[in-house]
Amino acid sequence: MELNIAGIVSESIVDGPGIRYAVFVQGCPHRCPGCHNPETHPFAGGRSVDTDQIFQEFQEDPLLRGITFSGGEPFCQPEPLAGLARLVHGAGKDVAVFTGYTYEQLLEQNSPAARTLLEETDLLVDGPYVQEQRDLELRFRGSSNQRLIDVKRSLATGRAVLWEGGVPPESCS
């Protein structure tokens, strides 16, 4: 399946727990002031890559704990990302997703495609970047309004369950 991306970082330690393969999608409706990746905002641009090719490259590095989808806004391309996430889970690795939407907003969308991506996500970093709440001491986040959500536990309990770090979500082990 084709995915429009801005770029890939093959080994990242800042985009989720452990060493991660970070995929930055192209296109974002949020356009947060002070965004770390403003070049990913336009939907026109980037390059088209097959998700099977991304997965092949991902599998070549045995040091990777998982994959991270960032952007841009991953939930603007949920179908190919959900398929890629399924492959990653099949390889025994975990999936982290950064989104400008809140967990609750994603559920309210009533989008089957967005729901599928959410169900394939282990760790969700949610909420827009708010420049006035910038905090460089936060783990995996840029502003204090953003949350680290354990998606599997959240979906099971019907409410957002925060991931505190240290010990990974059970589904990520």
Mean pLDDT: 94
- Strand proportion: 15-25%
Total of DSSP H or I helical runs spanning 4+ residues:
5
Q: State the low-pLDDT regions, or none.
A: 166-173
Please give the alpha-carbon distance between the first and last residues: 27 Å
Overall outline: globular
User: How many beta-strand runs?
Assistant: 7
Order of secondary-structure elements: EEEHEHEHHEEH
**Structural class from helices and strands?**
alpha/beta
Alpha-carbon Rg, integer: 15 Å
Helix content: 10-25%
Please specify the SSE layout and strand pairing:
Elements: E1 2-12, E2 20-25, E3 47-50, H1 51-59, E4 66-70, H2 78-90, E5 94-98, H3 103-108, H4 112-119, E6 123-126, E7 147-150, H5 151-157
Helix pairs in contact: 1-2, 2-4
Written overview of the protein:
This protein has about 170 residues and is an alpha/beta fold. Helices cover about 25% and strands about 25% of the residues. The protein is built from 5 helices and 7 strands, in the order βββαβαβααββα. The chain has helices at about 50-60, 80-90, 105-110, 110-120, 150-155; strands spanning about 1-10, 20-25, 45-50, 65-70, 95-100, 125, 145-150. It has a 7-stranded mixed sheet with strand order 3-1-2-4-5-6-7. Helix 1 (about 50-60) runs parallel beside helix 2 (about 80-90) and helix 2 runs parallel beside helix 4 (about 110-120). The longest helix is centred in the middle third of the chain and has 13 residues, at about 80-90.
Briefly summarize what is shown:
The chain is of the alpha/beta class and 173 residues long.
